[in-house]
Structures are given as C-alpha cells and as structure tokens.
Amino acid sequence: MANTKQALKRHRQSLKRRARNRAMKSRVKKAIKKVRLAIEAKDRELAQTALRDATSILDKAASKGVIHWKNAARRISRLSSQVNKLN
Fold first, then answer.
1. What count of other Cβ atoms lies within 10 Å of the Cβ of residue 80?
2. Which end of the chain is more exposed for a tag (fewer CB within 10 A), N or C?
3. Separation of alpha carbons 67 and 72, rounded Å
4. Predicted pLDDT of residue 1
5. What is the DSSP letter of 2?
C-alpha cells in the first residue's frame, strides 16, 4: 500500500479512473451488441438508430482515451458497412 500523501492520492485517482473506464467500456460493448442484434434480426431502422447511438458512444470513448481512436474508427466502419448491406 502507498505510504506518502501523494501516492495515496494517486491511488484514489487510479481507482476512480478505473471505474470510469470500465463503465465506458461496458457502454461501448452494449451499444455494439445492440447494433449486431438488429443486423441479425434484419431490422434496418433499429440497426440505423442503434448505429447512430453506438457511433456517438464510440467517439466519446475515443476522445476520453478509454479506447484508441483508430479502434473506434474501425468498429464504426465495420458496423456501418454491415448496416449498409441491409439496404
């Protein structure tokens, strides 16, 4: 365990960040899953709205540094191409 005041504060900050990052990653996974389920069900309108929400969540996660921006771009691109194939 940390001994100095500075190290204790850094530990508290790391716990807060870890909780925030885990929550954001969970939101990302749920959003992607929702799009994929809509694609499997061949529900075009639901897939498009879910993709819009997922894009927003992925961009936000990338801007906060939770995931890499290229990772977010790749996921958005692949989901978009799958949704576009439904048309």
1. 15
2. N
3. 7
4. 73
5. -
